[in-house]
Design brief:
This protein is of the alpha/beta class. It folds into three domains: 130 residues, 3-Layer(aba) Sandwich (Rossmann fold); 34 residues, no CATH class; 73 residues, no CATH class. It is 37% helix and 19% strand. It has a four-stranded mixed β-sheet, with helices on one face. It has a three-stranded parallel β-sheet with strand order 1-2-3, covered by helices on one side. The protein has a two-stranded antiparallel ribbon with strand order 4-5. Strand 11 and strand 12 form a beta hairpin. Helix 2 crosses helix 3. The longest helix has 17 residues. The protein starts with a strand and ends with a helix.
Length: 256
Amino acid sequence: MVSVVLTEKLTIEDFTVRELVSLGRYPYTGFFGRLTEEDQKITDQAITETGLENFKDRKLSQLSDGEKQKAMIAKALAQETPIMILDEPTAFLDLPGRIEIMRLLRQLTVHKNKGILVTTHDLEQTLRFADKLWLIAQEKEMVCGVPEDLLLNGFIESFFAREGILFDSQTGCFRSDEDYSEHVHIIGKGISSVWVKNALERNGFNPEGNKSTDLQIEITTGEDPEYIISRTHKKEVRTSSIETMLHELKTFNNEK
């Protein structure tokens, strides 16, 4: 009724992917533990559904951590249970790997009609892929709900905020609580303005200034965008990259 994928790394390195996944059929085998043609078919189907067709004959020792995790999910999938439980399935993976695994689990809930319960500390990915969250912390009452409701009602921030760390409800991400040296007004929109804001915050500037703010940065559009720094009673400075803009901005700011 329940299949489980744990956090521990695999130690059976001599197994092939197909041999590992076929272990998911163990509950259905008879006294001699033999796989039927139907068991073989279900094993191959689980391998295909987790994108491991080209890896089925490889040894586990030849796989990356992400591929091994997929193999363990395929094994659980081959078990054909209505419920799957995974403990920190993305713990050892890089960012693309974490997204890939969470996306796979999401697809399994939709196309295979499975209930999938995941324990994780990766809140940002969970907010994007989970249908429902159970927030658990010491000395707090458990809270359950749709991610968006929990975010808008302040539960996400109350459970995860720490001194010096803020939860940005606009982006669903955490950021450090900085002491800003100065406000900056950004003129311009689009992807460039998003990353200019990111660079400014990292370097101690608050990018939430308004039209009356003394220090301003205008972002031009086109094939060769420019970042134009201006301040009242100062000559404007034009730069062609965010790196140069930051260098000039610090010099600009020291001369005020």
